[in-house]
């Protein structure tokens, strides 16, 4: 990995805050507060206690935050669908953050679960997800993964290539699935709409690995319908991630409904799955659309398009990941070193090194993702200083928070908290530099418990097959 690509020394959007201690409501869990001494509490637990019991770095996940968000997202889509007399099912896209505890929370809140590998499937099952309410995705599911999925009775399998049609059909046929028990499948299509963050782009052509071109989908549907071990339940698309606004979804829905209307000529088609990708706030300048407005906008667009083509509305499905868990997560680090670096003639920034980095949050290095940060162990009256929070890894691109104003007296021993780390941080974590992955602690109602234990040096050594096993002394 190379150094950070060229960008302005200070991002245009970053404004010096009046108060560099403020917890900006949109990016922190709802339960985040500061106590009388200024220390951060999440889920009713203070950061000093969290550090003492679990060490740093530490992923903290606000259970009530995840549950409340799951309920709210589900209610939003169900209500939007009910207004048109149809049903909506919300799958939790588990790749955002997956552990058995989280599976339990979201399934208790009525969500189905989406997985993309045999590993994710195993965790979803271990967490008690009902097989019939699991969806399996992926562009290269192995035969073993598909066999396992069919064996446990996974609800839907999303077909991603022609080769996979035959593969799934064969596996389902070998299990005697036919008629009512035929394996339900969806066809993944590219609608040509790509939404990245605040904008979307609609193209006629696709050059990426997922799904089928819209123009190829009818032949795919015909083939699936010829196979007695498969049941074509619907079509699926997912236009991207961290999307703001409804226009990208509406454009994609219009194209998908065209296909849906077309495919209905060859038989029933029960479901349109519109994927996930609903954006969250990572910094104070992000203003994501309220999920209720998104749900209404998307469902209304589908209804409009169906009316225009005079086809009945299908059931709808959605797959939010980030928007369920993102804001419920906070990563706690301890500051190890602080040094001012002259970035240019007139820009000096504090490099604040913490005890984690790209191994626990790969998103800044991977996508140039922006985050914010606060000193968590105290408040400070020191003037805000332009800062960059960096990790401990051997890469100059090992950045946790690219640009933020922290109190200028930030010092070794301070606890630093980075909010909005609930999605795609734990799940993308690595052991780079043989740094053990941090534990995940769930906080709720003043209690904290480990839901995924941290790795130890023994864990790191355990996979190395080259270590001589101690043999008894023989003389
Ligand atoms: C990643 C993914 C999602 C979830 O995306 P979020 O941005 O986390 O909501 C949903 N569906 C599919 C197919 C995905 O690959």
Automatic annotation (TrEMBL):
Residues bound to pyridoxal 5'-phosphate: 277, 319-322, 424
Leading EC class: lyase
Function: Specifically catalyzes the decarboxylation of meso-diaminopimelate (meso-DAP) to L-lysine.
Gene3D superfamilies, per the entry: Alanine racemase (3.20.20.10), Lyase, Ornithine Decarboxylase, Chain A, domain 1 (2.40.37.10)
Keyword Amino-acid biosynthesis listed: yes
Subunit comment: Homodimer.
Pathway given in the UniProt record: Amino-acid biosynthesis; L-lysine biosynthesis via DAP pathway; L-lysine from DL-2,6-diaminopimelate: step 1/1
Pfam families named among the record's database cross-references: Orn_Arg_deC_N
Source organism: Microbacterium dextranolyticum
Binding-site list for substrate: 322, 363, 367, 395, 424
Active site as annotated: 394
Matching InterPro entries: Ala_racemase/Decarboxylase_C, DAP_deCOOHase_LysA, De-COase2_N, De-COase2_pyr-phos_BS, Orn/DAP/Arg_de-COase, PLP-binding_barrel
GO terms, molecular function: diaminopimelate decarboxylase activity; pyridoxal phosphate binding
EC number, UniProt record: 4.1.1.20
Lineage, top ranks: Bacteria, Bacillati, Actinomycetota, Actinomycetes, Micrococcales
Cofactor: pyridoxal 5'-phosphate
UniProt protein name: Diaminopimelate decarboxylase
Domain named Orn/DAP/Arg decarboxylase 2 N-terminal: residues: 72-325
Reaction catalysis annotation: meso-2,6-diaminopimelate + H(+) = L-lysine + CO2
Keyword Amino-acid biosynthesis annotated: yes
A GO BP annotation: lysine biosynthetic process via diaminopimelate
Family: Belongs to the Orn/Lys/Arg decarboxylase class-II family. LysA subfamily.
Modified residues (N6-(pyridoxal phosphate)lysine): 95
Keyword tags: Amino-acid biosynthesis, Decarboxylase, Lyase, Lysine biosynthesis, Pyridoxal phosphate
């Amino acid at each position: 990995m190379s150094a950070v690509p060229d960008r302005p020394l200070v991002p245009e959007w970053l404004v010096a805050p009046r108060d560099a201690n403020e917890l900006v409501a949109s990016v922190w869990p709802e339960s985040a507060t500061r106590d009388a001494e200024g220390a951060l509490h999440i889920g009713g637990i203070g950061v000093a206690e969290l550090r003492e019991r679990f060490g740093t770095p530490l992923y903290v996940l606000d259970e009530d935050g995840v549950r409340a968000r799951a309920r709210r997202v589900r209610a939003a889509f169900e209500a939007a669908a009910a207004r048109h007399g149809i049903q909506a099912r919300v799958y939790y896209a588990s790749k955002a953050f997956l552990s058995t505890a989280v599976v339990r929370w979201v399934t208790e809140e009525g969500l189905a679960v989406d997985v993309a590998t045999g590993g994710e499937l195993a965790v979803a099952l271990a967490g008690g997800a009902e097989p019939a309410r699991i969806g399996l995705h992926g562009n290269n599911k192995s035969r073993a993964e598909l066999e396992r999925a069919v064996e446990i009775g996974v609800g839907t399998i999303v077909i991603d290539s022609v080769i996979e049609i035959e593969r799934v059909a064969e596996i389902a046929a070998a299990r005697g699935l036919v008629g009512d028990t035929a394996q339900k499948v969806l066809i993944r299509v590219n609608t040509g709409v790509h939404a990245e963050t605040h904008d979307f782009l609609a193209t006629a052509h696709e050059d990426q690995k997922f799904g089928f071109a819209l123009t190829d989908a009818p032949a795919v549907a015909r083939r699936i319908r010829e196979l007695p071990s498969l049941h074509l339940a619907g079509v699926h698309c997912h236009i991207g991630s961290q999307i703001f606004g409804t226009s990208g979804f509406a454009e994609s829905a219009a194209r998908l409904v065209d296909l849906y209307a077309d495919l209905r000529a060859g038989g029933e088609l029960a479901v349109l799955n519109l994927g996930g990708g609903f954006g969250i706030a990572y910094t104070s300048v992000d203003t994501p659309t309220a999920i209720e407005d998104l749900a209404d906008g998307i469902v209304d667009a589908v209804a409009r398009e169906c009316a225009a083509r005079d086809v009945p509305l299908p059931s709808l499905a959605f797959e939010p990941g980030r928007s369920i868990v993102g804001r419920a997560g906070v990563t706690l680090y301890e500051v190890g070193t602080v040094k001012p670096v002259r970035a240019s003639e007139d820009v000096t920034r504090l490099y604040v090194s913490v005890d984690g980095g790209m191994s626990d949050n790969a998103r800044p290095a991977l996508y140039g993702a922006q985050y914010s940060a606060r000193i968590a162990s105290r408040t400070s009256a020191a003037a805000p200083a332009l800062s960059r929070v960096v990790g401990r890894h051997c890469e100059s691109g090992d950045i946790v928070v690219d640009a933020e104003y922290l109190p200028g007296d930030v010092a070794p021993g301070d606890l630093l908290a980075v909010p909005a780390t609930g999605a795609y941080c734990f799940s993308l974590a690595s052991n780079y530099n043989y740094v053990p992955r941090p534990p995940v602690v769930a906080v709720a109602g003043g209690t904290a418990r480990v839901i995924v234990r941290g790795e130890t040096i023994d864990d790191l050594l355990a996979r190395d097959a080259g270590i001589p096993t101690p043999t008894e002394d023989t003389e």
